[in-house]
From TrEMBL:
It catalyses: (8S)-8-amino-7-oxononanoate + S-adenosyl-L-methionine = S-adenosyl-4-methylsulfanyl-2-oxobutanoate + (7R,8S)-7,8-diammoniononanoate. Pfam families: Aminotran_3. One of its GO terms (molecular function) is adenosylmethionine-8-amino-7-oxononanoate transaminase activity. Its EC number is 2.6.1.62. This is Adenosylmethionine-8-amino-7-oxononanoate aminotransferase. The gene is bioA. It comes from Pseudoalteromonas espejiana.
């Protein structure tokens, strides 16, 4: 155990921007020396059970020997090379796997470096496809409220414009068409009125709309809304009927998190364009992909520009591709469905939070558990509740009134129990005030 303070927190506080933070009122940050399996080790000696999988990504936990070995092998041959005019085995093998495991019609892959960028690429694909068909009126996107697709400009333009983290930038963003967020919940009855409302929007706007973009089944940062698969099925049907492309953003939901390999499978649909990231490399390296069909790729390629105008420097990074191959094999070579179902059973312990006055709802889906606080809870002091969680030996990072778990799939029953108990006690004793 390393008790000597070597991470310069003063420098960090003074000079380093953390996600969604102020430079003058920085949030407390915890110095981490290493992470192993589902444990995060602090420099101060504490170890924390991880409930976040580093924001959906570290599905196999940390420091996994198989993933490490894949990276070491790749580093020893080539850690990076430009992708312009060059190809390599790790990209080719990864794309073979992606074509094999994603919905059948998706056969063309663009490899980028973050989730947000894969959304930018998806939007460009959609706009460029219609231009290639000689249709220049389709320049808008349609998307439900409560969505979240990333922090870059096109991605921000399709995030929820009202409650969004990005409303400050609204004046700079193109205006798109927002439809009501899905209301019928996963596991309950689907209200057909939602389908009728969606159809009205398609009828009114389809001539202007290039694509409908949606997070399948789980609206993530927009409220952890687990919605009914029929909403998605209905969107798919309307997109086909009204000549609108469907972009599904599986950056958070992909690779088993919801109990299906990809969440679109809950609705038995295929998108025209699919975005993946986060767990693609088992949370080890930054990599994303945008997949599309033969039809869209051919349209773009035979259109006026003839090329897809995107090419990030680190596109197809060999190291990230190699570890993504290893991560996908590791996932598929185990009974991951059983793992997710076991975690889901253990997450049911969150239901005891229902007895607490400040709790509005508890919901789980696959390896995701959410406790939503109500207005009585007041505004949540994230730093305070975070400090309590660290004291309890768990790493859980609430978002607004949502306290949620998306643990690594390797988490054992005791770890999940400790995470669920910490959430219950934090709410019971109101550690967020
Ligand atoms: N889409 C969804 C659904 C996400 O959850 C995220 C990340 N929270 C993104 C896009 C953006 O991905 P990244 O942070 O890798 O840019």
């Amino acid at each position: 155990m390393n008790k000597k303070q070597t991470i310069d927190l003063d420098f960090d506080r003074e000079h380093i921007w953390h996600p969604y933070t102020s430079m003058t009122q920085p949030i407390p940050v915890y110095p981490v020396t290493h992470a192993n399996h589902n444990l995060i080790h602090l420099e101060t000696g504490e170890q924390l059970i991880d409930g976040m999988a580093s924001w959906w990504s570290a599905i196999h936990g940390y420091n996994h020997p198989i993933l490490n070995a894949a990276m070491v092998e790749q580093i020893n041959s080539m850690s990076h090379i430009m992708f312009g005019g060059i190809t390599h085995n790790s990209a080719v093998e990864l794309c073979k796997k992606l074509v094999a495991i994603t919905p059948e019609s998706l056969t063309k892959v663009f490899l980028a470096d973050s989730g947000s960028v894969s959304v930018e690429v998806a939007i460009k694909m959609a706009l460029q496809y219609w231009l290639s068909q000689g249709i220049s009126t389709k320049q808008k996107l349609m998307t439900p409220y409560k969505g979240y697709h990333g922090d870059t400009f096109a991605a921000m333009s399709v995030c929820d414009p009202v409650n969004s983290m990005h409303s400050l930038y609204n004046g700079f963003l193109p205006e798109h068409i927002f439809v009501p967020a899905p209301v019928s919940q996963f596991g309950s009855e689907f209200n057909q009125a939602e389908a009728q409302t969606l159809e009205q929007y398609f009828k009114a706007h389809h001539n202007q709309v290039a694509a409908f973009i949606i997070e399948p089944i789980v609206q993530n940062a927009g409220g952890m809304n687990f919605y009914h698969p029929d909403y998605l099925a209905c969107v798919r049907k309307l997109c086909s009927e009204y000549n609108v492309l469907l972009i599904c953003d599986e950056i958070a939901t992909g690779f088993g998190r919801t109990g299906k390999l990809f969440a679109v499978e809950h609705a038995d649909i295929e998108p025209d364009i699919l975005c993946i990231g986060k767990a693609l490399t088992g949370g080890t390296m930054t990599l994303s992909a945008t997949l599309t069909s033969e039809k869209i790729a051919t349209g773009i390629s035979e259109g006026e520009a003839g090329v897809l105008m995107h090419g990030p420097t680190f596109m197809g990074n060999p190291l990230a591709c190699a570890v993504a191959c290893a991560s996908i094999d590791l996932l598929l070579n185990q009974n991951w469905q059983q793992r997710i179902s076991d975690i889901n059973s253990q997450l049911q312990q969150l239901n005891k939070c229902r007895e607490l006055d400040d709790v509005a709802d508890v919901r789980t889906l696959g390896a995701i558990g959410v406790v939503e606080l109500n207005d009585a809870a007041g505004s949540v002091d994230v730093a305070k509740i975070q400090a309590y969680f660290v004291e309890q030996g768990v790493w859980i990072r609430p978002f607004g009134k949502l306290i949620y778990l998306m643990p690594p799939y390797i988490s054992d029953a005791n770890s999940i129990k400790t995470l669920c108990d910490a959430i219950y006690n934090a709410i019971k004793d109101k550690h967020y005030r």
